[in-house]
Amino acid sequence: MGKIAKIEYFRVPPRWLFVKITDDAGIVGWGEASLEGHTQAVEGCLDAWIDQYTGMEADDIEHIWQKTWRMGFYRGGPVFMSALAGIDIALWDIKARKLNVPIYQLLGGKVRSTLKVYAWIGGDRPADIEEQALSRKAQGFTAVKMNGTEDVGWLDSPHTLDSCVERVKAVKALGLDAGVDFHGRVHRPMAKQLAAALAEHKPMFIEEPLLSEHMEGIKSLSALTTIPIALGERLHSRWDVKPFLEASCIDILQPDISHVGGISELRRIAAMAEAYDVAIAPHCPLGPIALAACIQVDATLANFAIQEMSLGIHYNTGGHDLLSYIKNPEIWDVKDGYIKLMEGPGLGIDIDEDKVRELSKGAEAWVSPGFVGPGGEWREW
Question: CB of 218 within 8 A of CB of 250?
Fold first, then answer.
């Protein structure tokens, strides 16, 4: 056993928040508490918890998880659960490194040695994506995801949807599978039309066709389309997920390990989904620690489908990308649409701490983009 001796966090570009925990034997674990656009809020939460958790047994991961969930009266939500994720992932990393095994060995062992992955093409205002799709194909990917639309009015011209269909057709013509992310920016009158227009082109899935706050709309849409419906990045616990599973209105669940309280809760959510025949495709447009943590869980899941990678995603600017902060980037070489499962201890990645500390100096918090409509109104981004 070893007690938590120190908890630190590092805001690093392009938009990530890393957590480092050291136990009293000097064993180090890394977690990721990134919450896009709300870095300061998560940092404030971590500040409030550092004194509470210092001195607790680092091995007691579930006890610490339950303390966070049950002892604060107010609980859940993106800020609390992202802060908890940073701590939870780091504690799993410490425990597995202490035992000199990958984390997946502590979760029952692996059921696969390779994992299917996909990458992003396009950006928030997608245009010509054929060149980007060809680049992804050259990197070894067989599946990609793109935003479906730019900002769309609540009831817009049907022609605003035409370009999405053409982009999907172009990507499919290159032999790639394509997921289409509606990003919650398409409201119900338009989402129904876009789903119908895409159906014959067989996208891999449509993601957040409506915001998850509109479960009744998602349930209605699921009855109208044969395209698999995916969502989950804005659901932050098994209790948030439960009504969607009970309503049988989604086909692919996309929890974000950095927003659901870490490895502990992602594993539980996946087990719930398996009981409803729902696939797991973890949301992860984030940093290397979040991706490594996802992969450790993915390796153990019967219902794992595909893993998002942020390699070259349009948010990664300023020369900082998925592989910038690790010393063993070769672990994520993509071949025929798959990566190999890491075999090293803990998370299986080697964090470049010197680089983390250097680039965290003066790092600014990332601010979420936004869309403004023609009348000056705010639109969903």
Answer: yes
Q: How far is CA 220 from CA 207, 217, 279, in A?
A: 15, 5, 20
318 shares a domain with 226: yes
The answer, as to whether pTM is greater than 0.85, is yes
Q: Cα 224 vs. chain centroid, distance in angstroms?
A: 27
Give tens-digit pLDDT for 312-360.
998 998 899 999 999 999 999 999 999 999 999 999 999 999 999 999 9
Domain of residue 80 covers: 4-102
Query: What phi, psi does 341 have (nearest 5°)?
Result: -70, 135
329 plus 246 within the same structural domain: yes
- Residues recognised as catalytic: 183, 283
Considering 68, 102, 136, which residue would you say is the last residue of a domain?
102
Q: What are phi and psi of 230, to 5 degrees?
A: -120, 140
Q: What is the CATH number of the domain that holds 175?
A: 3.20.20.120
